[in-house]
Amino acid sequence: MVRAFHDEMSILEEEAVNMQKQFAEDILVKTQLVTKIVIKF
What we know:
The protein has about 40 residues and is mainly α. The protein has 1 helix and no strands. The chain has one helix at about 1-40.
């Protein structure tokens, strides 16, 4: 019981970390796009 709960928490933590990475990468890409657009003008 405790083991299954622990595994479930580990999976949730991993997903949360992956979502944060994805989110950070999205922001990075958008920032770079905005920077490129600004440099063109």
